[in-house]
Amino acid sequence: MSRQQLEKGLALHQEGKLDEAAEIYQEVLAVDPGNADALHFLGLIAQQRGDLSAAIEHIEAAISAEPERPTFHFNLGVTFTALGNLAAAAAAYEKAGKLKPDWLDAWVNLGSTLGQLKKYAAAETALRQALEIDPKNVSALIGLTAAMEGQGQSVEAEEIGRAAIALDASSPEAWTNFGNALSSQGKLSEAEDAFRQAVSVDPSYSTAGYNLGNVLDKQWRLSEALASYRQVIEADPNYLSAWQNMLLNLLYETAETEASIFAAHQAWSKQFALDDAAVPAAKGPQDRRLKIGYVSPDFRTHSCAYFLKPLFAAHDREAFEIYVYSNLRREDETTPWFKDHADHWCDIVDMSDSDTAERIREDKIDILVDLAGHSANNRLGIFALKPAAVQISWLGYPATTGLPEIDYRLTDEVADPTGEADNYHSEQLIRLEDGFHCYQPAETIPDVNPLPALENGYVTFGSFNHTSKITSEVVEIWSQLLTRVPTSKILLKGRQLDSEIVQQKIYSLFENQGISAERITLSGWIPRDQNPLALYHQVDICLDTFPYNGTTTSFEALTMGAPVITLRGARHAGRVGASILTHLGRSEWIAGTPADYVEKANEIASDLPVLQEIRAGLRAELQQSSLANATDFAAKIEAVYQEICQQKL
Predict the structure, then answer these.
(1) Is a pLDDT exceeding 80 seen at residue 427?
(2) Cα 381 to Cα 394: distance, rounded to the nearest angstrom
(3) What is the average pLDDT across 539-546?
């Protein structure tokens, strides 16, 4: 009787008569409470209605009744996927595949889900299993392209991606994954063509437009990249990565103002504001150490580490308990140092924002510090949930986060002068005396060499900033300087300069200003084991970029004895150079206008004996300044923490 009833219910189900079908399934269960099929079908109806919790409950009950039915596990995986619980979905698909090894869809779904979880090796295994069943399965080939790319095997990813396109040239996913493999190999023009093809076959596929923006950015085509990100956002306002890349790239744009940058960050915040109010963080007792939580993806050999290490090393452990929430997927030789200098370490890379926020609440963190802003792999979503009573932004991003749940931002009076800057931050600005940086170079760095110009017979200017910071306006001013110092040369270093496309654009811009390629030396990325700081041995004077100054690069230049000429800008990112040099005691290297910038650089280049004297003493000068005094810096930060807690807790 149950079988006939089930068949009747299934027929109604297939006709879309869900209420009538559900009624029959319930009748079956009234007679046979453990009927696995009825439970399973009720789960599918709940899934169709969008009641995913009920769907999971019914399907799991079906599995309890008959655990060896692969279909049950597969549909449980589909439901978990819809719910966004990818780890549970992967486990369900894997069980389905093991129960029915020739089930193609189970292996494809498993591989795709593992890929989304960034478990690329496991994804490769699942997708190759799918291709054993069907060597021409396009979905498996598309997923395998991404899995190989995720493991850094871009050449093989390109080959697999090409095979996927040959089978289905109408797939935007195939073109996009193929483009990613090309981009990783530096084949930027080909990658751009692939992404444009993806957009042409399906304009609604936002991932293609986003990746097109990324490859345009790699080619030093900032305005086009921004246009691409904006198109993605217009079509898909919830595309978080497009928003964050757009916000970051706005900082490079000369035409942007502090007001326009603030407005863009407010628009992001409004778009991603939580529908539900954040759970209030518990206030901590004052009869214990203050608990400080640091959130970052960069507890590794990274520019941020040079500024975090002094603080971590000098923190007063009797008064402060240090928690690290690390969003770091790959640890390196520096990570153990941070683990040794934290009281508690929590890997959050595979934890959701809500789960991490709950962990932070359980840890009773008093002050939670964001160290990434909108830079890569940030976790601002955690801060939006307000898991700590006090939340602070510092170090990793040269602008407001736009997030009202972050209470304060650490800066100084030079980088953010009192007054107008306060109007363009969602956070309350706390201006630290003697600067908001404390720098500790790598343990092993080259010695400072004699001034290169003394041997070369000409001055070499240099800039090792990210190439995106070198705008056409920067090239124009640098060209004026090179014209003013006619025997001089310029050395530029940056990862983007590995691209021949970018190299030719650099040469062309300088040539348009009357500077020949013979006077320009370009260097791409130099691995750490090849001692990249030694390149400063070829540089006499460093030139800061604008309107987005250098930070780590400026400290590295000063450490290697090269003075830095900076142009004070109209927003935080353009005033960091002035902040560094002011607190070094070298305000004479800060220009107020482009003409002054050229004049200051020319003046210092005109007196080689003085320049050699500066070079010989600059490292010690930096080490003896407030910019390298870890003890005082930590005490200053801790005083801020204590004062805030007295006010807030």
Answers:
(1) yes
(2) 16
(3) 98
For strand 564-567 and strand 367-370, is the pairing parallel, antiparallel, or unpaired? unpaired
Please tell me the distance from the alpha carbon of residue 305 to that of residue 308, in angstroms, as a whole number: 5
- pLDDT value at 188 more than 80: yes
Residues 380 and 456 in one domain: no
Q: How far apart are CA 120 and CA 136, in angstroms?
A: 21
For the cut 80, the answer to whether the pLDDT of residue 644 exceeds it is: yes
531 and 604 co-located in one domain: yes
What gap in Å lies between CA 159 and CA 143, rounded to an integer?
13
Range of the domain at 19: 1-67
H or E stretch covering 198: helix 188-201
Q: What is the pLDDT of residues 337-359, one digit of tens each?
A: 999 999 999 999 989 999 999 99
User: Of 593, 485, 624, 497, whose CA–CA distance to 541 is shortest?
Assistant: 485
* Dist CA 351 CA 514 (whole Å): 54
Asked if residue 391 and residue 521 are part of one domain, the reply reads: no
Q: b/e map of 538-559 (b: 16 or more CB within 10 Å)?
A: bbbbbbbbbbbbbbbbbbbbbb
Could you tell me the CATH number of the domain that includes residue 20? 1.25.40.10
388 and 350 belong to one structural domain? yes
What does the pLDDT read at residue 32?
A: 87
Q: Are 202 and 210 in contact (CB under 8 A)?
A: no
**What CATH number did the domain enclosing 567 receive?**
3.40.50.2000
Whole-number Å distance between alpha carbons of 423 and 400: 11
462 and 376: one domain?
A: no
Residues 405 and 479 in one domain: no
Mean pLDDT of all residues in 178-187: 97
The predicted structure's pLDDT at residue 244: 96
Residue 169 Rama label (left phi>0; alpha psi -120 to 50; beta)? alpha
**pLDDT (average), residues 422-428:** 97
Residue with tokens 């690390």: 326
Instruction: Quote the CA–CA distance of 596 and 574 in Å, as a whole number.
Output: 16
CA–CA gap between residue 397 and residue 399 (Å, rounded): 6
List the one residue out of 221, 214, 246, 217 whose CA is nearest residue 233: 246
Q: Please state whether 16 falls in left (phi above 0), alpha (psi between -120 and 50) or beta.
A: left
| Total residue length of the chain | 649
State which of 8-12, 191-195, 276-280 shows the largest mean pLDDT.
191-195
DSSP single-letter state for residue 587: G
* 615 found inside a domain: yes
CB atoms within 10 A of CB 136: 12
- 10 Å Cβ neighbour count for 187? 18
> pLDDT (tens digit, 9 = 90+) per residue, 437-455?
999 999 899 999 999 999 9
| pLDDT confidence bin for 2, thresholds 50/70/90 | confident
Asked if 372 and 299 touch (Cβ cutoff 8 Å), the reply is no
- Label residue 275 by pLDDT band (50, 70, 90): low
Question: How much of the chain, in percent, has pLDDT values that exceed 70?
Answer: 98
- Provide the Cα torsion 328, 331, 334, 335; round to 10°: 60
Which sign, positive or negative, has the C-alpha torsion 415, 420, 422, 424?
A: negative
Q: Determine, yes or no, domain membership for 173.
A: no
For residues 421 and 494, state if they share a domain. Answer: no
Q: In angstroms, how far is CA 616 from the centroid of its own chain?
A: 37
Classify residue 646 as exposed, middle or buried by CB count within 10 Å of its CB (0-12, 13-18, 19+): exposed
Which secondary-structure segment (H or E) carries 321? strand 320-326
Q: Kindly report the CATH number assigned to the domain that includes residue 354.
A: 3.40.50.11380
